[in-house]
Amino acid sequence: MNLKNISIALTVLVFGVIAMLFMQKGNYVNQAKEHYEATTAKSFKGNSMVLELVNNAIDMNKQTWAIACGALQTVKNSQDMARLEAKFFPATKGSNSIANKTRRFEASSANVIVSTFGKVEEDKKTGVKSLADLQSVDVSVLLGNVAAASAAEGDDAEEEGEE
Amino acid sequence: MDKKKMKILVVVDVVILVALIVILMTLKGGYEEQAKRTANEQESAYLEKNTQVLVEQWRSVDQYSMAWKLVYSMLSGAKTEAAFKSNLAAIEGDKDARFKQISHLYTGAGINDAVQNGIYQKAGLAEGTILLKNEKGNKEVACGKNCVVKFSFAKGKLKNVDYSALVQYNLANTLKIEKPGEYHFE
Q1: Which residues of B touch A141 (CB under 8 A)?
Q2: ipTM at complex level
Q3: B35 within a domain of the structure (yes/no)
Q4: Which residue of B has its CA nearest to A31?
Q5: How far apart are CA B73 and CA B89, in angstroms?
Q6: Residues with Cβ < 8 Å from A16, sequence gap 6 or more?
Q7: Which of B75, B97, B111 is the closest to A54 by Cβ?
Q8: Has residue A153 got a pLDDT over 60?
Q9: What is the pLDDT of residues A115-146, one digit of tens each?
Q10: What confidence tens digit (pLDDT) does each residue in B102-134 have?
Q11: Which residues span the domain enclosing B102?
């Protein structure tokens, strides 16, 4: 009787071990799968974010460059400049510094251009001063030379009054 | 079942059991090693593919930045074919300025120095020249992936610059990070 019980128990044990044999593979596969999914998901999220942020930055950067290069071709005075700025950034306005004869346009802290004009003009009826005779457009900030452009920034900037 | 057959069954069970335990222990190590190896291989392959997109983006931004600088130089300085040649050589040759311009754009985008350096270590700067076409009077310059700026000269003087591709430049249409595929235990 004892022997019969032992043989039954051993047979059950054999099937149990066979089951374990199949289950352990599943466990390792699941562990590996979890590791793979966690690592790749982190990479996907991080790299997608970099890709998107840079693409968004390009979007603003290219429009700022377009203003700078467009100004060199078509702008004569600060009113022209304001129109060009509004074409690319309807919600952002540049500001004139009458004392420095410059106009600063800042789409963001990384996207700044400073235009230098040759003379100041005054509307005799309204007394509003504006800048004329575009001389140059400083793109130091766009080139990454932030310090150079900060030095050029006028501290007596006046809001443009011609619009 | 008689006693003799029971004895045989017990002996057979014990032998099978021992054999199964040996197999279990052997396979355990094998499965563990295989699972780790395949996961690492598939992870590395995905990360490599993923990083390659950022490498391509970095190099495209380098070309894009050089192209804008060249257009600006041609519009703000001497408008001659000779100036084009010297401006292009100066822009391409100044690797520090190229890095600075790319890094400035990335910093403005909110990408920190560590991530930038990680990409730069793999990408470096765009290789070769951006000058794609250099026929007399007609020059074409690469301004990133699928982007070309056209300069035309007449008698050595700049006649026209077509940089509309730069103004419309959009990498989102051409570069994408693929979602990871399923893990395979092979």
Answers
A1: 104
A2: 0.85
A3: no
A4: B35
A5: 12
A6: none
A7: B111
A8: no
A9: 999 999 998 888 889 999 999 999 999 999 87
A10: 999 999 999 999 999 999 999 999 999 999 999
A11: 58-173
Count how many domains chain B has: 1
**Are A93 and A85 in contact, with CB atoms under 8 Å apart?**
yes
Model confidence pLDDT, tens digit, residues B118-174: 999 999 999 999 999 998 889 999 998 889 999 999 999 999 999 999 999 988 878
- B108-113 LR contacts (CB < 8 Å, sep 24+): B108/A57, B108/A60, B108/A61, B108/A108, B108/A109, B108/A110, B108/A111, B109/A53, B109/A54, B109/A56, B109/A57, B110/A53, B111/A50, B111/A53, B111/A54
Whether A92 has its CB under 8 Å from any CB of chain B: the answer is: no
Q: Measured between CB atoms, does B73 come within 8 Å of chain A?
A: no
**Residue B46: both structure tokens together:** 């995905």
How many structural domains compose chain A? Answer: 1
Q: Is residue B126 part of a domain?
A: yes
CA atoms of A114 and A159, how far apart (whole Å): 14
Instruction: Report, in angstroms and rounded to the nearest whole number, the Rg of chain B calculated over CA atoms.
Output: 31
The residue behind tokens 């021992």 is B18
Pairing state between β B157-162 and A102-108: unpaired
Confidence class for position A20, pLDDT limits 50, 70, 90: confident
